[in-house]
Specification:
- By secondary structure, this protein is an alpha+beta fold.
- It has a single domain, classed as OB fold (Dihydrolipoamide Acetyltransferase, E2P).
- Helix content is 28%, strand content 26%.
- It has five helices and eight strands; from the N terminus they run ααβββββαββαβα.
- It has a six-stranded mixed sheet. A two-stranded antiparallel sheet has the order 5-8.
- Strand 3 and strand 4 form a beta hairpin.
- Helix 1 packs antiparallel against helix 4.
- It is globular.
- The N terminus is likely disordered.
């Protein structure tokens, strides 16, 4: 499955699906710079935290509390995968805010890659209940 997902990722990483491009236009767009990965689904850009839309990755050690259902995977590998997609300047569309007051965003890096799709290719988990307007599902359906 990993090999298959890798080939599919080549198609998903550049740009967004036509439907997603139409739907994303209604959201506020901003340039984010000087970002680094906090974990596999959260960015810190100049002190502001951004959560990737519809993506869930493994929690860093000590963050998955008892009784909580957490995403599977290697949190360090997933963090490294997100870090590898970060470019100096990226376009973020703020979709909503989460319960921690982080902006939940649809992000396109300077290479035209959708960060949520990149993380799905890196074995992050898709959370359809958090995919507003099915933006991620329509951007990289082959990875869902």
């Amino acid at each position: 499955m990993k090999l298959h997902r890798s080939y599919l990722a080549l198609f998903a990483l550049t740009g967004t699906g036509c439907q997603a491009q139409n739907d994303i236009a209604k959201y506020a767009q901003t340039q984010i710079t000087n970002c680094h990965a906090i974990d596999g689904d959260t960015l810190n850009c100049q002190g502001k935290r951004y959560r990737l839309l519809a993506i869930d990755t493994a929690e860093m050690l000590g963050h998955c509390t008892q009784g909580r259902v957490c995403a599977k995977g290697d949190p360090y590998r997933q963090k490294a995968a997100l870090q590898a997609t970060i470019t100096q300047s990226m376009t973020a569309y703020e979709i909503t805010q989460d319960r921690y007051q982080r902006a939940v965003v649809f992000v396109i890096n300077a290479r035209g890659e959708n960060l949520s799709c990149s993380m799905l290719a890196a074995e992050a988990e898709y959370r359809p209940q958090y995919d507003n307007d099915n933006l991620i599902a329509s951007s990289c359906p082959q990875l869902i």
